[in-house]
Sequence to fold (651 residues):
Amino acid sequence: MRSEFVRIYKAVHTWTGIVAGMALFIAFYAGALTVFKEPLAAWASPPVAGRMVPLADTPKLIAGVLAADPATARDFTIHMGDAEHVPGRMGWQVRDTDADDHDESSVRHYVGTLDATGQARIEASHPSQLASFIDVLHRVVGLPVDSDPNRWVMGLVAALYALALISGVVVLLPSLVKDFFALRLGKNLKRMWLDAHNVVGIVSLPFHLVMALTAVVFAYHDGIYIVQDKFVHDGKWGTAFQRQQPAAAAPGRDPASMLPPLELIARAQAFAPGFEPTALQYQQVTGPRAVVRVWGKDAAAVSPRARGGFAALDPYTGKVINSDFLPGRQSTPNLFVSSFFALHMAAFGGTAVQWMYFLLGLAGAWLFYSGNLLWVESRRRKRPRDGGEVPAQRRDVRLMAAATVGVCLGCVCGISLTIVGAKWAYALVGDANAWLLPVYYTTFFGCIVWAFLQGAAKAAVHLLWLAVMAALAIPLTSGLAAVAPGLNMWVNTSLSSLGVDITACVGAAALGWMARATARRVRQGGADSVWSEGPQPCLQGGVPGVGVQAK
Amino acid sequence: MWGGGADMADPALRPIQRDWLSKTLAGLVLGAILALACSGLFARLNTAMPLGVRGQLAMWMVPPVWLGVLGGVYFFSSGVRAWLWLGAASAFVTGVFYLL
Fold:
């Protein structure tokens, strides 16, 4: 390849990377945690008693709730297994019709229970939105609300990310064989960071290509469908997902005559062995188009969504109506579509793949951080070899270094403190969900301001220690709840909830190692760098005494 | 490589113009048309597939083709050649789509 092309693509890589890098760091760090959305929800869910009505009583529960509130027939869910984040045996949601489809904050949640006399009771429930909050940060690159415009911003970032991947490969290709098998540890630190950046980028390239392309689709699918409907589908796209009208509308079906949940699950499992149902979602049960979606997972198959897939059954006859979304029983074209979702959301291969995605996500976050670091180091002003004065670093380079440290560590600290805050706010003020957003953004912007005031070098050390403490606060909060019940907090002891505490401990240890290494660099490393503690707070122009005004 | 033509004897010696704006616009505009035409061709050739899933696959085709074109467009030796080659490719695929 001609070296001119390499130079052109290097410019593409630099500009796409520097524009999208920090947003991508947030998307990947929050995304890695979102892989374990359910354990996070379990960790943050306060205990509730008496909401898991025995399975055998479920038909009575359904009939009682539907009699008390007929509108519930539109959509409700029967949860099979118990877990800390399961609201109860029977739950449903009421959405604000004005709100965005993806906006979870305006949804009201209810559960149905049976009292001691067997009467159905309806209660409002307030599930923790911690896991959804982190998911929203992931889906819209750190913006607060998952709305259409914010997703378009995310899509633009994802498109730049795709270009950065393509251009990065082009730049690396001519020297791939030489560079790929080399991680040159040693005096040339920039060379080492570049080698590491290249190795991580190439090894996880398939993962990143999948993420970039699926994220662009998640942002712009509505627009693409509208254009394709006009030019390709001749305006018929709207009819693609309509079910056939039943021949004769049978009004007023009695939901008491539906098959019991265990029978419906047996039908689904007979249809798809290996499928493990977790919930039954009933829709329009009193109408002519009654359907129950038997949701579940199959670790040996591809699931079309993060929460698994479903078989659509007729709740009165148990007949399978639709298996387009059933793991293991999809047609080949549907399997293709599902695999795009599954490859993005780690919805295949069970827990092992989830951990792999967690690590790939963190590695991705590091990739963007290291990319910004290489941008900074490429613009370093070195002290002349024969000694002489330490040159002042360029102002734009100092600002970029501070922004990178502030945004990346602000996100890490912010998410940890938001997790901790979910439990403390519940204990102290009751409504924990209202505090998620203020805690996160206060921490996030506070870290950014601190980074600009102190300069990248000092702030990196401070903020890394803050990140260590914030991560440690997660297991400490659980421990405190265990020894001091009077605090009105709780400790959930399921494996997935304890897994959050253990992972936070490991994360704190890793951050502590980074903090020590960074502190050493700041004290002992060469002074001709933004990573040295020399008197270079980044909001000031030059260095007093040196007399070189950075331009 | 890309953009090789008969008008010059040795494409390896042709100077490469950066043409950032015209190449990027060619990738954005003609990449979109090419991607849409390819997805349309896919839909036309797979009418046996139910509309629901055929339409989804056609939608999923658009970003990879579009971004693939946008990612490769800087290999053209000039913005003009990018517009000519991608324009011809778009016209061809769109033409086949409407003829089928």
The interface with chain B takes residues 1-2, 4-5, 8-9, 12, 159, 162-163, 166-167, 212-213, 216-217, 220-221, 224-225, 227-228, 231-233, 236-237, 239-241, 324, 331, 333-334, 336-337, 340 of chain A (CB under 8 Å). The CA atoms of residues 392 and 547 of chain A lie 9 Å apart. Chain A has four domains: 1-46+129-242, 47-127, 243-345, 379-383+390-541. The mean pLDDT of chain A is 90.
